[in-house]
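Help!! Second protein's tokens look totally different from the first
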Amino acid sequence: MRRSDIVTGLDIGGSSVRLLVCAREEGHLKVLGVNKKPCNGLRKGVVVDIEETVNAIGKAVEEAERVAGVPVERAIVSIGGNHVTAQRAKGLVSVSRADGEVSSEDIDRALASAQAVVSPETAANREIIHVVPRSFTLDNQSDIRDPVGMNGLRLEADTLIITGSIPFIRNLSKCVDQAGIEIEGLVASPLAAAQAVLNRRQKELGVAVVDIGMGTTSVVVFEEDQLMFASSLPVGAGHVTNDIAIGLRTSIEVAEKVKLEYGFAVAKDISPKKEINLSKISKNEESTVKVKDIAEIIEARTEEIFRLVNKELKRVRRDGMLPAGIVLTGGGAKLPGIADLAKKEFHLPAQVGFPLKLEGVSETLDDPAYAVVTGLVLWEQIERGSIHRGRVISEITKKIPDFMKSVHKMKDWFKTFLP
């Protein structure tokens, strides 16, 4: 199998590394291998232990290669954390052709002009990850989705620019490079998750994807098939575990097991008589606790996360205003009852988002925690034109040192948000 026929997604999260290897067959993706390894090298999306992260990536790659039967040399890599931010920017250019017909080159120049809006102070410490076109204005005609072929004199691009901290991008890239993997591109985690769990109808109506990771919760909002908002909060599922550990006076390891095996997001649905003996989870524990007490701890923290998310929606006046509601992804979305709690807190429809099913052995991927890694391989398909739905430009940092020159600058990034 040719190297170019292999598509790999690498999601480096706060508690684990997930790797998905697919083969491109006649425009479709077939799963060859998927692997997950624990990783404690990141905190809130930021590398804090390079050796731990490199080892986790290496182990995931090694096992995925054994299952897939092909070498893994390159990957699309996720990037997250609350250092990843978004800002609106507009770029204005004159149409270059004498007959006034807009070309793809004019669009590129307008998008480049929008990037120049980023302030010098910001540009000194941050790097552009994505430039997402929201709409275009040609002379006095606004809200144009694709102006190519139209006639006019002045073209304006309304964009959402997503940036990340240069040192944090550099450290993440270094970990991947030292694990022997060439980075084909960096993709913001919530955009990848949205790619895996949303359909065109939801994006048209208006929807928010809430990706609950270990240390952060990311939010992206789509409306009229356009990305209109992106944000990240420094709180996630790990804080729920911490609260359980404090409430039960037990270790983080035991608290995590209790959350996964007995956790529930809505306390009122739990019988007050139901109890668990912690000695069944750990021989170092002897106490008995009520499952309802655990649910109350989980519900309190999850409500807090949802309230913070709702504040972000209020910033763009979309609280209670999204017909397609809330789609929850990430490992934190696996708590039973969490969709019901989200409906109550957001006053909107809510559901847990599962990744688009791929061909091959993909039962493992039927899990909201695999939304990002699935979205990464779908993102690569779009870049190659196998799926045509618009355009997003992405650039990897130009300021990383020589040892990371294998990281490609990615321009004319694929068709995804505009029809």
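Here's the second one for comparison:
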Amino acid sequence: MLDDRRQKNLQRILEIEERLSEIKDVDVLLENILAFARKIANADAGSIYIYNEKEKKLTIRFGQNDTQQKMLAPGEKLPYLFFTFPASPDSISGYSALSGKVVNIPDVYHMPELLDAGKKEKRPYMFQSSTDKATGYHTTSMLTIPLRMTQGRVLGVLQIINAQDSSGNIIPFDENSEFQILHFASSAGRALEYAYLTNNMVLRMAQMAAFRDPKETGTHVERVSTFSLEIYDRYAMNKRIPKESREKFRDLLKIAAKCHDFGKVGVSDLILKKTSGFTDDERSLIKGHTCLGAQLFTPVESELDEMARNVCLRHHERFDGGVQGYPGRFDYMSVVPEQKMPATIPLKGEEIPLSARIVALADVFDALSHARVYKPAWTIEDAFKEIEKERGRQFDPELVDAFFQIKDRIIAINNVI
């Protein structure tokens, strides 16, 4: 009976692993690795960390907790998590990252003093109960597993909490659960390694744009990408978009949003690095970056290419079809560097791809709320007021509504990235 159950569970893990292999963005993948691991072991909560081997630091990227999630209104999320701390053997996650070992604890409040009774090796780590005290949650069982690359280097740490039996009672992670999660973690580590390769290539291209334009910093790109994902998640919930479609779109969007200004590599430094106002001719030259960026993803060879092209080309269109939007109805393939853009017929409303409408909102909010060479940063509240003022004008009103529904998360992201 046990062998049959283990076989069925392994088959389910193989199906989950296949789904993981289709995810391209690192953050979306991390979120799914944590969710799937919890599902396999029937764990109530968990966290996932990125490990920086060079600096010996861990960064928490996602936390999930079904008990706390049930207390929130539909569509709401737990507080945004993103903080870094030293990977020390004093902490359970730090010990797992540094040693590369699995740590299975039946009760974190009653751990034995010795790590290995046979060797009389003292346990170096302790459970940090501060989060439990702050949230009122009670952690009991915990399984912590390093996520490794194919050559064995630790990329991150997966930590799942409070295994449950079929009646919802908290139980230890048994030998079978540990076996299944170890098998899953091996494949998850490989999928994460491949996602890093894609992400690093995108970030290198973003850095090329940053070399040309001092406004396009790495943190700007990350914030716009993260804002875009959060806006879409709330919008998709409001529109009741099916989960399968939602998951696929958000994965592509997280990467495509990072590509929004790649076309600036084809705009002159004399214009991009100018600290005073632009002339009409200079503005016309800058507008060409939308077309040049779209050309980088043409011909379209994948769904990611298609979305990245749409984002590059259309993230400066206006929802109301105003003439300030660009490039409008125009053969973007005809544009060459240093070419001024002609007057065109603008796109309007849902003629503009959803991905581009989302990135337009995220990009403008970030530009307003951060300093540029030509302007100081606006206050967060003033930036929000400007977005509200442009509801239905520059921006899709439904996206603005979603944006304001997640205002606290937007502020949290703005503060930590």
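Reply: Different proteins will give different token patterns, so don't panic. The chain is about 50% helix and 10% strand.
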